[in-house]
Design goal:
525 residues; alpha+beta; seven-stranded mixed sheet; five-stranded mixed sheet; 9 helices; 42% helix
Length: 525
Amino acid sequence: ERKTQWWGKLGFTNSRHPSDDSPPAAQTSYSEIGDTHLAQRKLLQYNPQPSHVTNNPHTMVGRGPRGASLGGREGNPPPTDSGRSNVRLNFLSSIARRQAAEGKVNYREVEKQVLDNILGADVYDRRMRPNGENSTYGATNVFVNLYIRSFEKIDDVKMEYSLQITFRQQWNDNRLKFDDRKGRIKYLTMTEMSKVWMPDTFFRNEKGGRFHQIIQPNLYVRVFPDGDVLYSIRVSLTLACPMNLKLFPLDTQTCHLRVASYGWTTVDLEYSWKHPAVETTKDLFLPGGFELANYNNSRCNVKTATGEYSCLSVDMVFKRQLSYYIVTIYVPTFMIVCVSWMSFWLDHKSAPARVALTVTTLLAMSTTTSSINNSLPPVAYTKAIDVWSNMCVSYVFLALLEYALVNYAARADARMAAARLSLQKELELVQREQNSHYALEDKDDGFETDPHIRRIEGAERQNLLFAQLVPYELSVRSVLASWPSKHQPGAKKIDVVSRIMFPATFMGLNVMYWSYYLTRNPVHK
């Protein structure tokens, strides 16, 4: 009687268990309104729970929500958890059978049946390419677009760049059409590309690449009801990028990503861009001091001895950020050149200080130039950075030569000063000898008493002495008079001229350098 009352509360008209061969007739079916969870909650509402438990395990009696004893006779144990779980599962299975009887469909099972039907071995042959547009025998159209995720490196030495992309291809295969069940099946997703025909796409300028396999292979194939197939895969590529470094570091490089068919010619396969052709992340970062200035898409069909092949190209313009090179190359080298000019303000007699300063700046400039060349490939033409570094090295080297010239001029000044001093002493010695000679002649000739005669003889001797000394004295005086104006300030004059000439000419060359290279066309095509 209690069993009959219990199953009546669950909505059945008799006391048969739902797991019997013939399902009971339900008074109230919660599956009719499509709420399985509501039916389960109804079952749990009347699920027997112990209302009180005595200390004696042999006398525990569980009572239902309305006080009915569910343990049978006094002293029998209540239903166990496994028993209640079996009741719940049997009840839910009866609901599933009732849904199937009412015509409700499990679409996961339908999708499996669709895949089995369209990919059957007797229906689909993946070795044969699909027909052309409108089921004609023309070329198969493959629409391509890609999503740039990140750039790993842009290498000037190896002339290559690495990036990570999501590559997508879409084409129509009319053999894969299926019924979408009134729009309930939007597409079928597969993770195995070997089930359907795939175009033999490859990257023409690829030097290396890899697929991503963590945690599962990062790819999928979607089949749409109209026969369209979408293939998407995540791949990392290293691509060749020939660069023209004549304007380095004021250059702009154009690198390509070329997609083509390896075996199918344009008669069988045609690639086209699908809008949007190229997409990038919002926070895209480029290494190596570059920025993505622009990108566009184009066609690059190629003809070989075996035919013409369809090809698509993504042209990416990489602009080098000049601020990085100004801070790391131009400003340090300019400061080294300015430091070398400090030697012009030092005394030319301070040889250790001037030599140490100029040699140190020359070595620093040579080290900087060597580090710049090590970061660039050896090319057969002159780069803009080569012109700048050679110009700076030349000015530092000329500062060293300037001190050599000053030192030579200073030693020449010292020799000429010594020569002038010796000439002055010789002149004084000659004058003393001449005076002493004429004094002795006066004593030997005697003393003339007649003042008139003495005056005449003295004038004749003076004229004779003047005639003898004038040529020699004039020559010495001319040399000594011309030396202070020509040779005495020579070393100092070189330093003074260098203080003005070196900065002025360097600034003039700077104006010419920047005017020339900033007006060149930086795009390498």
